[in-house]
Design a protein that fits this description.
Layout: E1 3-7, E2 29-30, E3 38-39, H1 49-53, E4 59-63
Antiparallel strand pairs: 1-4, 2-3
Length: about 60
């Protein structure tokens, strides 16, 4: 099984700039205005930094 980053949008307040976007070491997360972040899976290295940093646990690194 392989790990995959997922966004749980119901946990994301979507009322501010996502602090986890800046934590990603490879720029795999982006955000449009205050929407939930988007994941560029071609860049994501599955390091878990964003999921560990997200205070609302909206970003989850889990097994598929």
């Amino acid at each position: 099984m392989e790990k995959k980053l997922k966004i749980i949008t119901k946990n994301c307040p979507q009322n501010h700039k996502c602090p986890a976007v800046k934590v990603c070491p490879v720029g795999a997360l982006s955000q449009n205005e205050f929407e939930a972040p988007k994941i560029d899976y071609s860049k994501c290295i599955k390091c878990g930094k964003c999921s560990n940093f997200c205070p609302k646990k909206a970003l989850v690194l889990d097994f598929e």
